[in-house]
Amino acid sequence: MRANEDEERELITAVRNLLAQSGKPVTGNEDTVTGIDSGKLATGADESVPPSPPNGETAQEEAVPVSAGSAPGETEERPTPSSGGWRTGGGENLVRSLLERIERQKSGVAKEAAVSPSRAAGDAGTRAGAPLSSAGRNARSGIFDRMRGLKDADAPDPSDREDSGAATVDEPGPDEDLSIGVVSVDDLGNLADLILPKSATFTVEELNLTRNEHHFDFVDNARVVSEFDDLFSRALSTATLAAAAAQAAPADEAPQSRLGFLTKLHLPKATETIEEYDPALHGPLVDLAMRPSPGLEEIELYPVNEPYAYVRVTYDGTTREYTYSVIEPVLTPGELELFEEIKERLFETLDVTTRNLTRDEALKALRDAANAIIADYGIHITPPGREKVLYHVEKEFLGDGLIDPIMHDKYIEDISCDGVNSPIFVYHTTYESMKTSLIYQSATDLDSFVTKLAQRAGKYISIAEPMLDATMSDGSRIQMTLGSEVTAHGSTFTIRKFREEPITPTDLIEWHTFSPLGIAFIWLAVENAKSCIFAGGTASGKTTTLNAISLFIPPLAKIVTLEDTRELKLPHPNWIPSITRDSFSQDGRGEIDMYELLRAALRQRPEYILVGEVRGREALTLFQAMSTGHVTYATMHADSVASAVHRLENPPIDVPRNMLSALSLMSIQVQARIGGQRIRRNKQLIEILDIDPRTNELITNEVFRWYPATDEIRYSGKSYILEQIMEDRGWSEERMQEELKRRQEVLEWMRIKKIRYFRDVSKILVSYFRDPEAVVERVRADLYGEGGAA
User: Which residues form the PilB3-like N-terminal domain (predicted)?
Assistant: First the structure.
């Protein structure tokens, strides 16, 4: 500001001198105008310009004709202002121009406070006719003005010079312009190679370089703006733009020092490769260390979805309770914000149908979409951080959200959510019912999850119809309620997990649910087309046993299964799984219940019919099928033969008693406790023989019975079914005993060898069906040594 005042005083002094001398005679050629002393009027000159010599010598410039009356080529040296060689009219015009210039300077001080004093003075001096020095133009001028070129912006139009009578100054040529450090955008050639990397996604035009504009259109990021301007000021203080362009990095190398502001923007690279997460290199994603807590003991720690999810079972000695704790990667605040942003973007833009994709293909498509969003934002994230974010994205879109780790736990049978702000409970095969560390803390999240489960199952749940039974994608059964219309604590769900690997007869023997002889007995009965119903209470293992004994069905027999929700899984190739369907309208039209399925199944000529659960009018049709020679296996809720018969004979089933004799066997399953541990046992295996004509009571025979005191299952020694098989096949009693022994040895051999996968078990059973001698020889060689004899 001080420099401006000094310059203004110098201008005023010069003007007063001109006014004082305006009436003196003119010397020399009247058609010429001389220059003004550069030491007094060239206010735009830098301090580095030397002052006027003390001996009175003035700057000499070529005379420019301003009148048509002057002879061509006539030139004369311009006298100094003290010589009085000014034409009155020309002097007045110049004075008027200078006065207007002073007024504009006064009015523009407030508006252009950010403009440096040297630049303002240089601008005034240029328009007054004094050439601008190199140092004066470079000092403290804005980067955008230097890039656009001050020559084109400030130079007066040639036509204006001829008419105005103002002094004319020769501007430096292009070469001189480069030498003083000013390069116009047009002269530069390829500006993109100078200021932008080739990986940038915007063009030079989008930078919107305009005069007097010293910032990008950033939002709340003024720090980057100042660093940007300072960076270019430092970079151009000692080198010109032309020199910088000549020293630009090659196309395959990213510029470094001049592009610091682009580095701060984290612009994505078109060919950027993603570093994959490596546990050995980057370390674990979760912290498995247990924090010390009084009275809390760690019982077991095992992975359920390695390396992402683990389960820790702890025991509290104070409350004497087990707790099921889920350990997952914890997101930092920044990672959590990124996860929420990715989730929102995917909900808006993801267009992938998983029906025609395998899980691996769907997972790859989801990860690629999430990685594209991360690259789109230009976010730099470590491989472990990226993997943690992607894991939570996979849980949300392809998994089961909050309960996804539990769904991966093969030891969990049931999952129960009782409402919002209530812990989720699980039933563990070893530790039974336990409280977990997972809680739905938002009613909105819980309602959304229940609705999503219904949609995935292809069904609909709403406040108008708030209850729903469905099957999950993995075959698990789920019962749901929505909102607080029918459940006071909000939405609820209960999941009966479906085992991806079904239970086999080997498992039933290993768990002591059946004895090896009892399984061998059932094997013979199934192979010889004897029908059976498995009865018991809730979670007593009825459906599990039904699925296990179905492996005894001959390999090529035609099987039809009827279920409300998919639970049975068979290895047989000639198998038709059937499922009921709800109505599409309020009047019940379009509904396909178990009765309709059974009627259709009888027209398919099945050899074996398996019914998930008998509970209605389909039971009558089922017993009619038994009477006509169809082998049938089913489950029902009953805790004894008497209660089973009572249910069958009364509404809504209404099976006549004389039809019950078509049933061959009834297995009673129970859930009990031995030594504080919950177990499942085959309480009774009873043969249905006939109906007493005098009393109209069923005649039964108990073949096997479980004794809780010793936890043993004993054979009664008498079986009418075995006698009937002996008669049908022409076997002697010794042959029957040998057959039972051989099958029992095969089952024990599989248990000892831990052959429990259902397809492996099925291969051995099929091999025995086709060549029993070869299988028995191999089994006895392993059990008894080289001799192969018991």
Answer: 269-329
Residue (of 199, 186, 321) closest to 269 by Cα position:
199
Would you identify the CATH topology of the domain 505-783?
Rossmann fold (3.40.50)
Query: Is the separation of the CB atoms in 626 and 531 below 8 Å?
Result: yes
- For 79, the token pair is 């006298």
Q: Can you list the alpha helix ranges (DSSP code H) found in 398-537?
A: 404-407, 443-456, 505-510, 516-527
Average pLDDT, the chain: 76
Mean pLDDT, to the nearest integer, of 388-404? Answer: 94
What contacts 84, CB < 8 A, 6 or more positions away?
21, 24, 25, 26, 27
Query: CA 252 to CA 168: how far, in whole Å?
Result: 49
Say whether pLDDT at 298 is over 70.
yes
pLDDT in tens, 165-174: 444 444 444 4
- Dmax (CA) of the chain: 160
| CATH code for the part of the protein at 327-496 | 3.30.450.380
- Model confidence at 155: pLDDT above 70: no
Q: How far apart are CA 665 and CA 534, in angstroms?
A: 9
Same fold, 327-496 and 505-783: no
Helix (H) or strand (E) holding 63: none
Q: What is the pLDDT of residue 589?
A: 76
Give the chain's end-to-end CA distance (angstroms, integer).
Answer: 115
The whole model's pTM is what?
0.60
* pLDDT one-digit tens code per residue, 19-39: 665 544 444 443 433 333 433
